[in-house]
Structure formats: C-alpha cells, structure tokens
Amino acid sequence: MKYMLLIHQGVAPTPRSPEEWERLSEDEQKAVYSAYQTINETPGVSPGLQLAPPEAATTVRVQDGRTLTTDRPFVETKEALGGYFLYEADDLDSAIELASQVPAARMGGAVEVRPIVER
Question: Which residue, 20, 23, 76, 97, has most beta carbons within 10 Å?
C-alpha cells in the first residue's frame, strides 16, 4: 500500500524560521537533519520536497466561471503543510511508525498519513 505523509509544521522550528530554529541547540538541529536523512533513506520512501513558507502560497478558487486568487493559504498558517513523503509500506502501522519519526510530529506539528488510491 502506498501512503502520503503530509507534514503539518505547526509550531515546529525549521531552518527557514530563524528565531525558532536558533533556539534549538546545535545538537538538536543536527538531530532534526539526521532524522530527515534517515527517513529519506528508509526503503520504500520516495523523498518529498520541502514547501516554501505559507506566505508564498496562492489559493485558487473558481466561482461563477471566474478564477479568483488569494495570497497566502486558505488555512491558518500554523496548520500549513511544510512538506511530504511518499511511502510504500506493508500496512498502516508501518506508515504510522515512520510518521512518528518525523521531527515535526514531536516538535509541535503533526503528520497526516493518507492512503493513496491506485486505479
């Protein structure tokens, strides 16, 4: 089964938020980088990409045949996606185990595990 692991950053510090990131010790920063590297090297993982910050997003809607755009995401910034992984696993429990290793999941964010529908 294939799963998408959607990383919701929440309040998890990232290198692109310097104030929060700098509050982490050098060892904590290295641990975050190491955890993501380990996940990327896990068999069955197709590394995803980090997304630009929510401020860079444009939300698109079509109403009455007109395309409407809004700067920033529709959701609250604290809920915005920060990145993703694709993971081919034997079962949901394996995907949950991998999701629990994503630093954001334990640092104020969350990881949504969603099965991919294959046709």
Answer: 20
CATH number for the 2-115 domain, one of 3.80.30.20, 2.60.40.790, 3.30.70.1060, 3.30.390.30?
Answer: 3.30.70.1060
> Largest Cα–Cα distance of the chain, in whole Å?
53
* Beta-strand pair 45-50/58-63: unpaired
* 3-state SS string for 52-115: CCHHHCEEEEEECCEEEEEEECCCCHHHCEEEEEEEECCCHHHHHHHHCCCHHHHCCCEEEEEE
Mean pLDDT of the chain: 86
Question: How many C-beta neighbours within 10 Å does residue 45 have?
Answer: 17
pLDDT tens for each residue of 84-106: 999 999 999 999 999 999 998 98
